[in-house]
Design goal:
alpha/beta, FAD/NAD(P)-binding domain, elongated, binds flavin-adenine dinucleotide
Length: 344
């Protein structure tokens, strides 16, 4: 409900994999959480960018789909009864009475917390949009049509004429994958060389030779045309002005993510190249009571991996405990000893 103030132990900004695991770690130390995310669903990059891709470096899971990992993290956090405020960006963070912090969302929700964990990944992220006149009229269409910046379900592209633009891993991986279901797949790239995993590039060339995928190189997107608001043609041009018209039901531009800290940049935290500087032993920022974990942080040796973020969540929770439970000794306990509500 807008203009409502919730009081909690810890406010977590970002419901990506690392923010979700922070709920569990805080819960294990008897600290309740409210979690806010700008996106309409939890999971951060895993849900928004690659839900159907398998991840191979989550300890204990030789292979797990990104969407399944998110669902398991939600299940793991559930016993601690977090409150989620999704689909709203945190726009302000300011000091409140008694050393507490007030987190405010664009929807007018306020969270008064003893401590804040910023797990905001790459910030307010969004796709880099190609500068095509009138592109907005093809955005927001159902999956498999118009202009889409991510593939949620491969099956939405079954029988579709797909034009992919870009030369990185996403462009190459989706060309390989969609070639199995789409009516046609064309890959537009401005250079002959792809910046993707060599094995994937090798397979792409194999599919091209077999006639399953068409490589449209060296060309760049120039225009898009439709009939009655439905995309029909992607026009591409090379540097000499030669033009080709590609029949298309859907254009997938994969030009990377625009990374923008958004409002977080205004909160007076110590930043280094769009990342929050933290103490690697506690994930504390330079403001007392504010912690940061996951992709958004930097410290010597930081690895932008989910597993690293999980460890940071545990460290931050332990560092926050004395703020939420002052004077209470924290006895380190394994989960096997302490158990989890409702499970033990
Ligand atoms: P994110 O997942 O980025 O989540 C941050 C969340 O914070 C987002 O949901 C965002 O909306 C929200 N947010 C930001 N600003 C605000 C705000 N002001 N208010 C409210 N919400 C906000 N990592 C691996 O370990 N293994 C892999 O195999 C792997 N494969 C990958 C493949 C791809 C294609 C990509 C793109 C990434 C991959 N990664 C992989 C990286 C991994 O996804 C990230 O390390 C991980 O998502 C970081 O988690 P996070 O919770 O820190 O941030």
């Amino acid at each position: 409900m807008p203009n409502q103030t919730h009081r909690t132990d810890v406010a977590i900004i970002g419901a990506g994999p690392v923010g979700l695991f922070a709920v569990f770690e805080c819960g294990m130390l008897d600290m309740g959480c409210h979690v806010v995310d700008a996106l309409g669903e939890a999971g951060g990059q895993c849900s928004a960018l690659y839900p159907e891709k398998p991840i191979y470096d989550i300890p204990g899971y030789p292979e797990i789909m990104a969407a399944d990992l998110v669902s398991k993290l939600e299940q793991q956090a559930a016993p601690f009864d977090p409150t989620y405020h999704l689909g709203q960006q945190v726009v302000a963070l300011r000091g409140a009475a008694d050393g507490r912090w007030l987190v405010e969302t664009e929807a007018g929700i306020r969270i008064d917390a003893c401590a804040v964990i910023i797990a905001a990944g790459v910030g307010a992220f969004g796709p880099n949009r190609p500068p095509l006149a009138g592109i907005e009229q093809y955005e927001g269409h159902p999956p498999g049509s118009g202009v889409q910046y991510l593939v949620r379900r491969r099956d939405d592209y079954r029988g579709r004429r797909v034009v992919i633009a870009g030369g990185g891993d996403s462009a190459v991986d989706w060309a390989l994958s969609l070639a199995e279901v789409a009516e046609s797949v064309a890959v537009v790239h401005r250079r002959g060389k792809f910046r993707a995993a060599p094995e994937s590039v090798r397979r792409l060339h194999e599919l091209t030779e077999a006639g399953t995928v068409e490589l449209v190189i060296p060309f760049q997107l120039h225009d898009i045309k439709g009939v009655g608001g439905e995309l029909r043609t992607v026009v591409v041009r090379d540097l000499d002005g030669n033009e080709r018209w590609l029949a298309a039901d859907v254009l997938l531009p994969f030009f990377g993510l625009s990374q923008n800290l958004g409002p977080i940049a205004e909160w007076g935290l110590d930043l280094n190249r769009n990342h929050i500087v933290v103490d690697p032993g506690s994930c504390a920022t330079d403001r007392e009571g504010i912690f940061a974990i996951g992709d958004i942080v930097t410290y010597p040796g930081k690895l932008k991996l989910i597993l690293t973020g999980f460890a940071e969540a545990a460290m931050a929770a332990h560092a926050i405990h004395p703020l939420v439970h002052p004077g209470e000794a924290l006895h380190f306990e394994y989960s096997t000893t302490k158990g989890v509500p409702g499970r033990s």
